[in-house]
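Side project, low priority. Logging it here so it doesn't get lost.
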Amino acid sequence: MESSSIELPGSEIGAVSYQDGCLCIRFSRAYIIKTMTGSHDRTRWWQSGDLIMEGAKIESELPEGRLVCDGGDIDDNIFTYRDMIPVPLDTRGHTRCDLGFRGTDRRLVAAGETLRLEMIEVAKYIEHIRPEG
């Protein structure tokens, strides 16, 4: 069994758009950490994808241009994912995102009714991460 998650700090955002209650955060390069059950070793990959929130209400100004995420929180009902997004993600109910961006004090804060992650193309391998020690 394998688990995967997007590592928000360092992931690159190509664009953020909002139209008719739909917020789309386009990751031009989302960094993914994959772990095999029973193994201490992990691997790092990158892949493009969209984080889509429907029924969204924006609580901040939309950032413009290409950005590098500095981390943040993704709320999925009673769960809060700090600095990561589980892959896959497709949820309904109370959803929220609060993301910061490298080199700025601006944040993207929004709450919505649904939240899903749509990965694009195939993940590309970067490196093997061995445990320290």
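Brief comment: The longest strand covers residues 107-129.
Revisit when time allows.
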